[in-house]
Structures are given as C-alpha cells and as structure tokens.
From TrEMBL:
Organism classification: Bacteria, Bacillati, Actinomycetota, Actinomycetes, Kitasatosporales
SUPFAM superfamilies registered for this protein in UniProt: Homeodomain-like, Tetracyclin repressor-like, C-terminal domain
DNA-binding region ranges: 45-64
Molecular function terms, GO-annotated: DNA-binding transcription factor activity; transcription cis-regulatory region binding
Name of the protein: HTH tetR-type domain-containing protein
Pfam family, one: TetR_N
Amino acid sequence: MDRKKAGQDPAAAGARPLRRDAELNRRRILQAGREVFAARGLQATLNDVAHHAGLGVGTVYRKFPDKQALAEAVFAEELNEIAAAAHRALAEDDAFGALADFLEAALERAAHNRGLRELMRHPTFEGTGLAQARREITTHCAGLVARARAQGTLREGVTEADIAPIAAMIDAVMALPGERPSASWRRYLAIILDGLRARPERTPLPAPGDAV
C-alpha cells in the first residue's frame, strides 16, 4: 500500500523522532549545565557544558546561542524549584517551622551549588524566567513570614525584607576561606533562627535603616 495514500507522510513520520531527539538533547544540555555551573560557578563555558554532556559544542550553540541563554534556563529551573518548595511550605500547620525548614532546604541547595550562590550575590543573568521565579519566591516568603507573625511565633519587627539578607549572611559563611560549604553554615542558621523566634521579654528590633 502507498504510504502517502494511507496518510503516512514519510517526512512527517521522520519529523517526530527528530523532535524527540532535539528535546532529549536540550534536556541533556540543561542537566549538564546544572552540574557544571554547580561545580564550577558562572565562569564555566559552553564548551565545558558540551564536554560534560558528551555533545559537540555546535549542538549546544544551536540550542543556546550563548552562555547567558543557557544560564538563564538552568537557573530559572533552579529558582522555580525553590519557589515550589516555598509554596508547599505555606500549607504547613506550624508556620515558623515551615519558614525555618524552607530556609534550611533552600540554603542546603545553595551550599552544593557554586553557581547558585554566585547568582544570589551578583544577579548577572536576569531573564524573564529568572525574574518571574524571584518574584514568586519573594511572594511565598512574604506569606510564610505573615503566617508566622499571625501565629505569634515570629519575633516582633521581623519582615519579609529580612529574608534575603539572612540568606546573604549564611552565604558569607559558606564563602569563608578554608570552609567547606557544608561544614558550619547550619550552626549559624540555627543561631539566626533562634533569634527569629518570638519571646515576650525581648526588646523591639530597630527599624531598617535606623542608626546604631
């Protein structure tokens, strides 16, 4: 039977496997990018990613025209996963515990991802996907803080604007000379979290920007 008469265009039939192969290569490049940027930071090149993926550099360039395009795709995925974790935390009954667990999980991810820590310090790559994911994380963190405040378990005066500086302080610990990121940051996060807990006898926090 004639394949065209049977409605099976050979060109269309061949296109499906090609599309599948192209998508598989794209996912392979993204996974390699995640691993390379995590290990080497943002100075890693598309050549590094291609080598790690076991693909020709031309294949990588066809999917991502430059390092910025790849980094934005990789870190949009990373930040979307962090945003999803923050959203799930909003459903927990214990609001302060949910906030603390989210911070620990997000920082755990950063501890093993040099590129993510560099992105936190210097948002060099800021495409639409990254900006949207950052907004979602900020929104969900604001919800976590508001719930903990409403339950009376968060220290008076702490706001959602304090979350990013707290993460930056822990990142500074991770970056200490001679320190492995996984070695001591949990100790300092525990100290900070203890300071965030509500205790009636504590004096009010100074407002942001107040002179000391």
